Amino acid sequence: MYAFIFRHLPGPLWLRIIWAILLITAALAVLVSWVFPWLSQFSPLTDSTIGT
Amino acid sequence: MAAQVIGELLITAGVILLLFVAWQLWWTNVQSNAKQDQAVEEFFADLGEAPVADDPVDEPPTSSPDQVPVLEAKAAGETFAVIYIPRFGDSYTRPVTSGVTTAVLDNLGLGHYPETGMPGAVGNFALAGHRQTNGAVLDNIHTLVPGDRIYVQTQDGYYSYVYRNTQIVLPDRTDVLAPVPTQPGVEPEERILTLTSCNPRFGAQERIIAYAVMESFQSLEDGPPEEIAAQVAEVAEGAA
After folding, report:
1. Which residues of B have a CB under 8 Å from any CB of A?
2. Closest-CA residue of chain A to B171
3. Quick one: which H or E segment has residue B194?
4. Which CATH superfamily is domain B10-239 in?
5. Hey, where are the domains in chain A?
6. pLDDT at B72 exceeding the cut of 50
7. Residue contact A1–B23, C-beta within 8 A
8. Where are the beta strands (DSSP E) in B65-178?
């Protein structure tokens, strides 16, 4: 799958490597900004208060 | 082909889960610590010049109970105090913010249960903080030893509390927040500081509660207690 994506990125090899880095960075940004904060509400580590 | 795609997706899922663990246990601390440092700086900036006393008094003036100033209740989200706990290290300088919502605890560390008293008040001044993640402000709560000092600095001065004991309870035990902890309805005589966090470490099946009793108060003009004098001067300098 990843090989398929990489082959279909436009441009010469160096440009495709840059594309790949950009896509991975974007995926990480989405994870850290939205997915992980949402997921952390289910983490028991963050229950510190009494009575909730 | 299909098997390869599924395999790559599974590997991706595994990597993402590992990333989540790293984010939760490490990166949230980095972010929260930065925000807390900023909150401490702002607290000191609001104090102005007063707290920077070069020669701390050796003997804390024994103030009679009715001389201890008590802050008015603060609006949620307002940082009104800074806490120093030498047992947690000589760089343990953490802001205290009103409210125990996730917004407060995840960003600014220690939160004040708004239904409990303010520092120095007869009764219970109760705080919550994370054991892990988001600054992990109370990670070392189990290392406190009876006699350890916990210092709370407000715009009025320094309240010195002496750690007394720890209790491990189930999460629904709101009576630890009572004016006399675990004895709701009893008229308080002591000034208690209560810290609550989750227990065990890396779990949340229980809550760990640490109690301290107020020992003395020093105004800002008198300078910080000797044990934290250097630390306070350093923080004040960093904020100036």
Report:
1. 4-5, 8-9, 16, 19-20, 23-25, 27-28, 100, 102, 105-106, 111, 113, 128-134, 138, 169, 171-174, 176-177, 196-198, 202-205, 207, 209
2. A50
3. strand B191-199
4. Sortase (2.40.260.10)
5. 2-37
6. yes
7. no
8. 79-84, 93-98, 110-112, 123-128, 149-153, 157-169
pLDDT per position as a tens digit, B191-228 = 999 999 998 998 889 999 999 999 999 999 888 999 99
Q: Within an 8 Å CB–CB cutoff, is residue A7 touching chain B?
A: no
Place of tokens 């003997």: B59
The minimum CA-CA distance between A4 and chain B, rounded to whole Å, is 10
Give me the interface pTM, i.e. the ipTM: 0.88
Q: Cβ B130–A39 below 8 Å, yes or no?
A: no
Distance between CA atoms of residues A19 and B12, nearest Å: 18
d(CA B213, CA B136): 23
Looking at the predicted structure, is the pLDDT value of residue B51 above 70? Answer: no
Question: Which among B4, B23, B173 has the least Cβ separation from residue A50?
Answer: B173
3 state SS for B150-188: EEEECCCEEEEEEEEEEEEECCCCHHHHCCCCCCCCCCC
Domain ranges of chain B: 10-239
The mean pLDDT of B79-97, rounded to a whole number, is: 95
Query: pLDDT grade, residue B237 (50/70/90)?
Result: confident
Contact A49 B16 (CB under 8 A): no
Contact B16 A44 (CB under 8 A): no
Q: Which chain B residues are Cβ-neighbours of A2 within 8 angstroms?
A: 8
User: A5-52 pLDDT, tens per residue?
Assistant: 999 999 999 999 999 999 999 999 999 999 999 998 888 777 778 875
Tokens of B218: 């020093």
Check residue B59 and give its pLDDT: 53
Distance in angstroms (rounded) separating the CA atoms of residues B81 and B109: 12
